[in-house]
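Batch manifest, entry 17 of 40.
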Amino acid sequence: MSRLVIRFSSLGDVILAAGVTAPLGDVTFVTRERYRPLVERFPGVEAVIGLRDGESAASLARRLPAAEAVFDLHASPRSKAVCARLKAPVRRVDKLRVQRWLRVAVKRQAALPTVLERYAAACGIEPSTHPWIPLERRGADALALVPGAAHATKGWSADRFAAVGRRWSGPVIVLGGPGEEALVERVAASVREGGRLAQAVTERGFDATLDALARCRALVAGDTGLMHLAAACGVPVVGVFGPTTSGDGFWCHPGEVVEAALACRPCSRYGGARCPVGDHRCMDAVSVDDVVAAVERVT
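Output type: structure tokens
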């Protein structure tokens, strides 16, 4: 019998699970259907079962195979309801909800164990070292820029992303997902105005994005799913952190974080629609020079 790993979303959290699937081996991974093409690439994953839009926990549980163990890496009401219907021992990730809340409320709490460390503890294994997702690197002379963010407060200035691209000596690839086409093209066009080659890549799936990452020497992004994807594929990453911090548990990759030391950080566990104090200084305080210097160090 296989081992069931459950992590429905979001993209970054799903990708971090790639750090534990190889040591587990013979894994049936349960995730949202849209992540299936990516999770099929995780080492140790033998099958992927996609959660359908609107599907109930009971319906999903009926479609799952018998398993020797279940690793609930989501620990949500839905995942717990699914696990309750399965005849197998369950190990569940500790989401550290109180500690994460205290970091936002008190600001001076110690850094938390990373999500990867918590996944590994739940699974009773040591996590894999990077890279986790096999990717045939080709040329690898491009710089990738990811100007988009699911939460507005995590967004660094598009103009600053473009300025970083104009200072790169090679080609630039600007990456994004559905709904980010205009932003991605704007940044790419601005890089081209500086005399650099710049390609815009946005897609609903992952094939074009992975093809682009195979050509990248480094990537610059905020605290986003594409940042985690690049790192999982072995691309050195420069992460620009603002409302969240590198000590909140989501930074666990080779590369470098650029972040401002401000008393108001972290202001959120995930990011938000607007800055609570109204100045967005956590992101605005990160300069183009800061990021360019970090790119030079990781490359």
